[in-house]
Amino acid sequence: MSVDENLAYVITKRLSFPRLVGSEGEKKAIKVVVDEFEKIGYNTVNREKFETSLYIWKRIELWFLILGTLYIILAISNIIMPILSLVIIALIVICMLKLCKISDSTKIKLMKNDKYNFETENIYVNLKSKNSLANLIFLAHYDSKSQVFSSIIRIYLIIVSVFGGLILLVVIFVLSVLKIIFMFNNLILDNILLGVSIVIGILAILNYFNKVGNKSPGATDNATSVGTVIALSKYFKNNPSENIDFTFLITGSEELNLGGAINFIQKHKNELDKDITYFINYDLVGAHGVLRNVTSHGIPKKTTNSKLNELFRNTSKDLGIEIKEIYFPTGAGGDHMPIVSLGYKACALGSAGSIKYVHSEKDTMSLVSKEGLNNIFSLSIEVANRLNKEFT
Q1: Which residues contact 302 (CB under 8 A, 6 or more apart)?
Q2: Is pTM beyond 0.90 here?
Q3: Is 256 in contact with 53 (CB distance < 8 Å)?
Q4: Can you state the angle between helices 187-206 and 165-182, rounded to 10 degrees?
Q5: Position 392 confidence tier, pLDDT thresholds 50, 70, 90
Q6: How much is the pLDDT for 3?
Q7: CB 337 within 8 A of CB 297
Q8: Which one-letter DSSP state was computed for residue 152?
Q9: How many beta carbons lie within 10 A of that of residue 256, not counting itself?
């Protein structure tokens, strides 16, 4: 590894300790980030404080508890009172819409109970170019969290709860209509649906118990990304761009509500031209496994920026670095999401190797790959250089 690439590894090691929003670890992480920027030679390190909360997590827990309970009631009502099933189906659809709305928020909401509210901050430095024809913002979040279930289990729980539930709704809706109109009855089918509903209901309710904690060292989620962004800030300080102004943004409260990204974009949207501003979000980079580009996410489906995706696709081929484009329907979030929702050009990069261990005590330096850090570092520099040439 070069000196700059090795810096990413060193910073990752410095940050690999639990740092949930509101904890002493988070305060320590902020000091580390500021210190690393200052050591590189940035005289002005911007620190923007904002308020954040557990609002989204508390609401998600509540809605999944309600959703799971309704699934179980739905199958019972289908047996004893089919017309009630139609009412329950309507309530379940409302729950699903509420969950989608919460996960797609572009505003930070605070709790009435102050013990669930916290003050945190974004940290960033700017690097001006000679011509200032475009803006490229590299971002990564510095906070971490642990949960009762691993991320991969959480994703499966949510997918089954939502998509399995949707299939169940369609089947029971059709069956309820047949029962109401044609007095259709099939005891075997009713019992099968009852069993399926109970299973899906229990899986949905389990999301309520997936509480947020502060036990994960967060080496790959997201210390590697912070190290990468700071290392890039050093590289481009020594190798300035002709046409692109850089911002190296380290956000807070990503794990609670994507709060840092939301706060930054809301605060700076009037000064950032959507036509010439690009965001590259790093989350789980530098782990073992194939590099991934999240080209779309959410329900309804939202896509990330085609120009950035094409640049990473072509550059990875030219450099011989394998990259896989993926769609995340639900169950996982990233700082690029509110940025995309507000109409900005953004993409999101991660690695496949550590997903089963993130948000757990096993997210340690053992998951960090020097080759992975080297790949994302080299790829990012080349993409930035190619974007710079497009504005020549």
Answers
A1: 296, 337, 340, 341
A2: yes
A3: yes
A4: 150
A5: confident
A6: 59
A7: yes
A8: H
A9: 24
Domain boundaries, the chain: 3-50+120-146+213-390, 58-106+150-209
DSSP label at residue 269 = T
Torsion over CA of 230, 234, 235 and 239, rounded to 10 degrees? 140
Q: Is residue 301 classed as helix, strand or coil in its secondary structure?
A: coil
Alpha helix positions (H), 303-390: 306-319, 336-341, 370-390
* Structure-token pair, residue 130: 């000679």
For tokens 């394998």, the residue is: 322
Helix (H, G, I), strand (E, B) or coil at 368: strand
**Top CATH class, 3-50+120-146+213-390:** alpha beta
**Structural tokens at position 15:** 């940050």
C-alpha closest to that of 341 among 311, 293, 305 = 305
Structure tokens at 164: 């399995």
pLDDT for 164 equals 92
The residues, ordered by sequence, that sit 6+ positions from 67 with a Cβ below 8 Å of its Cβ are: 92, 95, 96, 99, 161, 165, 204
